[in-house]
Structure formats: structure tokens, C-alpha cells
């Protein structure tokens, strides 16, 4: 579940394939069901919300490997299905929103995918597939590290392999991509760069403590 800090709405995901939106009834502490979103029957495992000054997108990750996209109408406030993200081979177990146009998806297939939405559109591009875990990626957290050149992200991912990995991802903006276009010819365009820091596994932490770090 998650809460929209702008309007206080509560979003809940369900194994029946639906996403329910609740609004608090001020004065009596109750919540009213105001909307039910459903596109596929597959169980919904996770949710993420990307907000900006002029847009709001809801993402729902399902057991069928898809991430469904819901766009909020500015006038009515309703969420309409705007498409889906396809790439994972197995269930999507966790989602994390970063900045206002980047969303991350972690899967049972042990990978993390970085998606970026185009300005003024619901179209997304998969910028990178991050591999390193040996088990399903169960949860993630992300924060913006710097925005001087592109978008810099610091990502933490936890897996059933009992490891927490730290990733630094740089998402390049189109202006910067054009500047590097000539350099990247013959090697394919690089829209995102990432590196993995030391693994925060129990054994790694014990080794660092034994060394006095």
C-alpha cells in the first residue's frame, strides 16, 4: 500500500488483481472507497506513485511480470489505464519511484529494471537491466543523489539471497545524450549508467567489523 501525500488518498493492492483507492472521511476517522482499478486478473504485489507539478502516474506490479500504468486526470481526479511495462520474466515483487519520471521494478527473475517516462507522455523506455542478485528482488528504496548532469540515483535493493545491494545510477537527459551521440556510435546509445557498491550482506558486515571498519 501507499499514500499520496498531496491529497491523502490511500492505495491498496490485492491478490484479486485490483487496486483500491480510499479517501479519509474527516471528522469520524473512517475511510471511504472511491475507486477500484482493475486491468488484469493477476495478483498485484506492489505499488509506486510518480508525481510532478502537472502529472501523476500510478504503477502496479503484478505476478504475471507486468507493471501496469495508471494516469490521473487533472480535472476529474480519476485514474485511467495508460499501458504497461513488459520485460520481466517472472513476478514483479517491488517498485520504487525516483524523481518524477523514473520508476524501478524488482522481480522474481532476480533483476532490477530502470524505466524512464517521456515528458508529456505515458510512453516508457527501459534504460537498464541491473543484474547481481542471486534470488528474487523483494524490496527497494531509491533517492535522488544529484541532478547536475542528468539524474543521479542511489538505489538499495534487498533480495531473498540475503543480500542488500547498493547501486548508483545516472540517467542521462536528452540534451546530454545528443552531446555523447558521436562518441557512442558503434557501441549503442547509453541512456543510463550504473555501478554496484559493496554488498551489504551479513557476512560482508561481519568482515568489515572484524577489520575495524
TrEMBL record:
WD repeats lie at residues 1-22, 85-125. Residues 174-194 have a biased composition (Acidic residues). Residues 174-213 are annotated as: Disordered. Keywords: Repeat, WD repeat. It holds the Pfam family WD40. This is Transducin/WD40 repeat-like superfamily protein. SMART domains: WD40 (SM00320). The keyword Repeat applies. It comes from Rhynchospora pubera.
Amino acid at each position: 500500500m501507499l499514500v499520496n501525500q498531496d491529497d491523502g488518498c490511500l492505495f491498496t493492492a490485492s491478490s484479486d488483481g485490483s487496486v483500491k483507492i480510499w479517501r479519509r472521511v474527516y471528522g469520524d476517522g473512517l475511510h471511504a472507497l472511491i475507486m477500484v482499478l482493475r486491468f488484469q486478473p493477476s495478483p498485484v504485489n506492489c505499488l509506486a506513485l510518480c508525481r510532478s507539478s502537472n502529472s501523476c502516474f500510478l504503477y502496479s506490479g503484478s505476478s504475471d511480470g507486468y507493471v501496469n500504468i495508471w494516469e490521473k486526470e487533472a480535472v476529474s481526479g480519476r485514474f485511467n489505464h495508460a499501458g504497461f511495462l513488459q520485460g520481466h520474466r517472472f513476478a514483479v515483487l517491488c517498485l520504487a519511484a525516483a524523481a518524477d519520471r523514473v520508476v524501478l521494478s524488482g522481480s522474481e527473475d532476480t533483476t532490477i529494471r530502470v524505466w524512464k517516462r517521456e515528458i508529456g507522455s505515458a510512453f516508457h523506455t527501459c534504460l537498464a537491466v541491473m543484474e547481481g542478485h542471486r534470488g528474487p528482488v523483494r524490496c527497494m528504496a531509491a533517492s535522488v543523489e544529484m541532478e547536475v548532469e542528468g539524474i543521479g540515483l542511489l538505489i538499495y535493493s534487498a533480495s531473498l539471497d540475503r543480500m542488500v545491494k547498493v547501486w548508483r545510477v545516472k540517467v542521462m537527459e536528452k540534451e546530454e545524450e545528443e552531446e555523447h551521440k558521436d562518441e557512442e556510435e558503434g557501441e549503442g546509445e547509453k541512456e543510463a549508467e550504473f555501478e554496484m557498491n559493496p554488498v551489504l550482506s551479513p557476512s560482508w558486515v561481519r568482515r568489515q567489523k572484524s577489520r575495524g571498519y
